[in-house]
TrEMBL record:
Catalytic reactions on record: S-adenosyl 3-(methylsulfanyl)propylamine + putrescine = S-methyl-5'-thioadenosine + spermidine + H(+)
Source species of the chain: Heliorestis convoluta
Descriptive protein name: Polyamine aminopropyltransferase
Subunit composition and interactions: Homodimer or homotetramer.
Gene Ontology CC: one annotated term: cytosol
Active site positions: D156
Keywords recorded for this protein, A-Z: Polyamine biosynthesis, Spermidine biosynthesis, Transferase
A single GO molecular function term of this UniProt record: spermidine synthase activity
Superkingdom, natural source: Bacteria
Amino acid sequence: MSITTFTEEHTEGYNLQWKIKSILHQEKSAYQEITVADTVQFGRCLILDGAMQITVQDAFIYHELMAHICLASHRQPRNVLIIGGGDGGIIKEVLKHPMVEKVTLVEIDERVVALSKKYLPEFSRSLDHPKVSVVIQDGFDFIAKHQNHFDVILVDSSDPSGPAAPLFSKKFYQLVQEALKQEGIFTAQIGSPLFELDKLKTVYERVKSLFPIARYYMASIPTYSTGPYSLIYGSKGIDPLSPRDVPYLEGLTQYYTPEIHRAAFALPPFIHNAIVGKDTDLSAQARK
């Protein structure tokens, strides 16, 4: 078996290198370079514009934390929007909540959906579920036309470059706020706390200016840059530290538990101080 390597570049002094058994597919779509490969350590993976997106071995960590934090916090999450995530992994987790009645996935690149269906069936088979509608459209344009419509919005975008760049703007977060119903919740991935603290602080401040409750949370994901990875939670009034009971998830998750749910919001001081502020008490924010 011939082994090759793929290098994911992050900074001038830090790269990740993967041993690749084979390139299963590679193409330039209308929006980005798409590669599906089989890695030695993590199995099949999806790479967009040279950045690792998911692998079959550890994607459950990211997918479960993005989906279940919001779905377990909301009291009646019936109508869910996912922006990005054309592989279907987030949908797979959302559908584990029986009260969800409708899931809309908006993906800008139809080739991501098509290639995920061919090469990543572990995730993509959820795209064909009867509760799911797949819309091939720019998420920014879609959300601008759906005010007061969704209970939960999950932004599963790639990094803030290329087609995903508008999904990190204050205007986009404003549109998210307007698209949510009265007790709506959203979450989005926002990057590495070790490499991108300034960007994370900017996103936190944008979300905090629009939502009564804004919280930053983390997970350790081996295939993402540096391991620790961050997400932002914005809510019109529901505190994620008081989730409802979700006994139906027992045995259905590999990473998420009620204990992990709460622990994800516990920040190391260097991150809390840099992003939230040394003198800010988030528990007090939640009581307001």
